[in-house]
């Protein structure tokens, strides 16, 4: 990582701290004064997401050369996503069983938001969400999953076309480069943007005193989730070392993306930056352009861990003991609910309803989590983005092993 990137990392960190201090001290007034800085930064990142995603996925596939290679790249990617989401849920379940944060938490007077009851996630809902009848409409609403499906189809069609479609492949390759250049410019806004976002959100929570009261009401739940996320973060670091052949320097190279995820609470909005950092870290474009866009919408380790932990917390608060069978059900549904959650703020809270319904817990329980969800969302989003970054390194290594028949290239690159 160059000196400029180091400086940027320090400035972003200062933005988080200063934003926290401003929101803590001035409450809602902080948001009124500097919230616009955060909005400007978020808009600037979000405006890049759709064009960058299309260009990255299409050019990622065309750069594979033979579209049949997409099969093994896709399978390894999905195996990585499922394995790490599974580990995350397991960590969440173990932590809550050990710490038992929900015991004795009062549940009287909670009411359920009626719109939550309509939340469903059947197989047909999932399949329908993959294909949008109007791709422009999906793009206008930043619905990333159908755009990814469309881009994969377009990439494969271009790759099969070879000579006749080469010019389109070059167009998307160039577009990807141009978009990443703009990401570099937008990054200069990051420290102030993150400052504005954090100050605004903490201010909306009523400033320091009110925030502290809401956190301490469910303090053990907050501690359990944060500890679980920290454990998973470390497990991903081990996976990075064993399977990705990289270590601390990769973590510090990706730290700007992880911090921006913390500030924005959106993996999708962070995607441009995640891709930019991965490129700086020398991750093979073919891996980064496929694994990161897909990961930003479906690979949600932090969300999965959170959903499992939160559902068990609610069960404990209501004095309902979920046995082994119930916890297996939580394991499966929390993994699916996390995969189905969009990479936007507090999406996990909505899809969690599916898990609650599956194990028959009262939907009112969500009321216990509302006051602190925005805070935990930031940490789980940072874990989501870190999971994607590790995935890109792992798949990168796999691709280069396949190409070279030996792991030397990456061993040399590992610090
Ligand atoms: N905010 C998370 C993300 O964007 C999703 C969630 O857990 O709510 O990754």
Note the main attributes of this structure.
415 residues, mainly alpha, 79% helix, 0% strand, binds aspartic acid
Summed up:
By secondary structure, this protein is mostly helical.
Describe what you observe in this structure:
This protein has 415 residues and is mostly helical. 79% of the residues lie in helices and 0% in strands. The protein has 18 helices and no strands. It has helices at 3-26, 28-62, 69-99, 123-130, 135-140, 144-161, 166-186, 190-204, 207-217, 219-244, 248-264, 267-280, 285-298, 301-317, 324-340, 347-358, 370-404, 408-413. Aspartic acid binds at residues 265-267, 300, 303, 341, 343-348, 377, 380-381, 384. The site of aspartic acid has 16 residues, from helix 16 and helix 17.
Assign a percent range to the helix content. Answer: over 70%
Q: How big a fraction of the residues is strand? A: under 5%
> How many β-strands, per DSSP?
0
Secondary-structure element string: HHHHHHHHHHHHHHHHHH
Task: Determine the structural class based on helices, strands and strand pairing.
Answer: mainly alpha
SS summary, helix count: 18
Calculate Rg over CA atoms.
Answer: 21 Å
Bound molecules: aspartic acid
**Overall spatial form:** globular
**Termini Cα gap:** 12 Å
Low-confidence stretches: 406-415
| Biggest beta-sheet profile | none
Q: Please tell me the overall pLDDT.
A: 90
